[in-house]
Give the backbone structure.
Amino acid sequence: MTPNLFLATQTLFSPHKWFRHQAKTEKAVRKIEHWDVPVPGLYEYIPGRGWYQIAKDEPSKNAENGEVPTIKLPQPVQVKYSRVLRRSLLAPDYEKRKRQSFVEDKNGKRTSAGFFKLDEGKGWVMAWDDHGEFIPGPYKLWIPDTRTDTFRHMLKSDDPEYASSRRNSVEPQRNHRGSQDSRSTQYRPGPRSSTEFRSQPSTRANSYCGGSRSQPVSRANSRPNTRPSSPTSSRNIPLSEATTLQNSESVNVGRISGGSLEKDSGSAKRQSLRAPPVDRV
């Protein structure tokens, strides 16, 4: 294959293209920083390996001239970042919290999964699936089941704080749902109201609708009508005076009725006398 004369001539008269200048990349260097978490002390960054704890603070002595006295560790401890807790942990603590186990579905089929222990020391979360892929959440709480050597959902009764609070509570325990949900999805019914409303019969007075009298709404066992029947019922009158008043009222009523009858008979007689004579044929 013959060379390209144009490219050969261009390269011959362009000596600046004979050598390639590559940009220099900044080489990572070691650096040391002081952290307060996960353990107060000095941490060193090693390029290509990550962060390591090389010394820890000496708690018995105070800082002098802005420098905290430290105790150098015999061997550096690696630092690992937990995506579940979203903070850094020392490698021994991280590996202690991590566990590989199995879970059973409702059909009894077992599936492998990775679990991570939380700071509370009791609950676990499923952080990795059976393929080792990280699960970002949200999480349900799990707990190891020693009988089946698997993990199961954590119940409210598995929480020591919840169990102690239920024993110390003066409120009577009610039957709750026997679901297998974890504490993150638990259901707590609200307190029942102590006030009970009882329906009472209506004491409203009878009414007329359309010329026909409506039936009373109140029952026989309802409270009596509290409307006063007469002006005298609102006053407290002794029994003897009440009897005298009743007799006098009946006599007055008789006199009034008798007078009205006499007036009616007299007016009828006067009308008969004033009647016009009838023409006789």
Remarks:
- Residues 170-214 have pLDDT under 50 and may be disordered.
- DSSP finds four helices and twelve strands in the chain.
